[in-house]
Structures are given as C-alpha cells and as structure tokens.
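Known limitations

Files may contain more than one protein. Parsers should not assume a single record per file. Below, a two-record file is shown to illustrate correct handling: read the sequence, read the token line, then continue until end of file.
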Amino acid sequence: MTNNKPPEFTLDPQFPYYLHPSDAPGAIITTLKFDGKNFELWEKAVITALTAKNKAAFINGIIPKPDIATGVRPIEVNAWVIVNSMVTSWILHVIDLKLHASIAYAESAQSIWVNINKRYVIPNVPKVHQLKSDIASCKQGTLNVVEFFSKLMGLWNELDNYVKRPSCKCEAAE
C-alpha cells in the first residue's frame, strides 16, 4: 500500500514564508521614512532589511501569489497571504502618511513596490549634474579628515546609485 499523502508543509527558518516570532505588522524595518524625495536611499534601506529577513522575493516578483488552480495547496496560499501582508505592512510603516492614499489598496507588496518604482525611478539628469558639481567643488575646509572623507564618499555613493555602469561579462574581464 502506497501513501498518496502530499508531503508535509513545514516552515524552516530559511524558507521565505517563515516569520520569526519577533516579526510583527507594526515593526519598523528601517528608520528611514520615504517622503517622496529620498527614494534611492530609502529603496536601498528597504531592500537591505527585507533581504536580511529573507523577504525580498515578495517585492521583486520571485515569489508571486500561488494559484490553487495549479495544484498548490491552500495552506501554501495562506502562508503566502500572511507573509505578503506582513511585508506590505512593513513597507507602509516606512512611507510617509501623505503617500499612503496612492498605494494602500494595492493587492500585494510587489504591486506597491512596482507602483512606487514607476513613479520615483526616473533618470534624474539635474541631480547627477548637481552631484558631479558637489564632488568637483568639495573642499575639506574646517572638517577633519574623517568627516571630509565621509562627506566625499557619501557624494560618490549617491552618484553611483544614479549612474548605472554596464558590467563587462567577457572573458577578458576575468
């Protein structure tokens, strides 16, 4: 006699559906709140926090909502709904209230993420020019070496975030 019972659905701590007991809907995943002007820095902070919690796949589309019609068990769909709701809550808690109306009714954390990206990921030529000017005119002045270096590195890192350089994948680059 064979056992036709499907394998047990378990939540291993390495599994993206796993929620730690300290994970709560009101948890603040980053102290940086998105206000409509600081998208690049906020995006980096949120992605870092969600990656640390093994939940980035819920915003980048790697883990879409499972469909019962494809044979996925209801318990797995329910697990996705629970984690998606948690990630959605985390994202909403690090966005300024004045921006909530445009995203609060999205059906998934991914749709919120896509919505925000469509509006705020835009080539910002004036910002790139301003950063290049700030770097060119950056002077130590009364700053000590560590403060000056931090200021300059901050400008370079911000510029790097705006200017995406293509990476070479040819054999010569290895």
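...continuing to the second record:
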Amino acid sequence: MRIKFPSILPIIAALAATASVGFAAELDLWFTPLSSEGPMKAPLTKWMKETLPKELPGVTVGDNYGPPVYQDGQQKFIVQGRKGKPDVIESVLEGMIAYQRAGLLAPIDDLFDKWPDKDQFIPSTIKALTLNGKLYGVPYNTNVRVLLYRKDLFQKYGLTPGGKPGTTYFRTQRQFLQRNPALRVSG
C-alpha cells in the first residue's frame, strides 16, 4: 500500500513557488507537524524525502521544521521573518493574519491563479485566507470546531440553549456569566 499525503501538496506548491522566484536550493520550511515526535513524523518525513526531489528537482528542505507549538512559531517568525527565514511556513489562520499584518507575507494570487489544481478547494477555505482582496495562503487541512455544554448545568441555572443558529452560544454565554459571576474567566 502506498502512503499518500495529498494535504501537503499545497506546501509543495508554495515551495515550488519560492524556488521559482530565485530562493536558495535549500529551503527552510517550518512545518509544526514535523517539528516534534508523533505518529505522522516518520511517514511524512519519508514521503517528503521521496516526493520533493521529483516535484522540485534541485531543491532540498532543511531539517529544522521550526518550533513544535504554533504560538511559539508565530512569535519567532514575526522576529525572524524580517531576516528572510523561514522561506515557507505552515500556520494556523490566526498566524497568517498576524504575519500579513506584520508585512511578512506576499500575496500569492498570481501563482494560485496559474495552479491547475486550484479548483479542488472549497471556496470558503480560500476566502478565509484572503485579506483585503488578496490571497495569502493555501489550505491544506480543515477541521470543524464544536461547542458542547453540560445539560445538567444549564438546567441547574435555568438556562436554555435555544435561539437562532449562530447566536445561541453568545447569548447563552452572556446569560450564564451574568447569573454566575464567579465563573467568569479573566483575560
């Protein structure tokens, strides 16, 4: 059975884009899933070593995959990015926004528009990576967040989760904290 990692293909595209504009033959890639030991590190590292030479002849990726925690990587990139390292960074959405605001990212609209596989993306994932009408990243992974609540606590304090979709949590959170000031979280 052949292991495929299609979710990293946008990173390869980003590497190819940086290589095509004259960056060094060895690129510095900060990729959090590879920066610490875990179940995906060995197969993903193997896949990269086998695939990248075929996709990007003459380009190698260094062994430093950056800090293992996104927040640490964000702080270090904001400082180091002004010196040109890393060449490519994998990040969460919040990081991308911070990097763009710090002037560390260039729009990739022209490169993305030329990409033959660009139509594979769900439009909302591209929209999330677009700031002020410019595209600054390519999604390689998406996930869903869920807010769960304990029915017994809602019943105990006379709260109901009812309401229109998209407004329930905020109204309920406000009610819950108003009735229970000791439960407020600082910060």
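Parsers that stop after the first record will miss the second one. For reference, the second record is described as follows. The radius of gyration is 21 Å.
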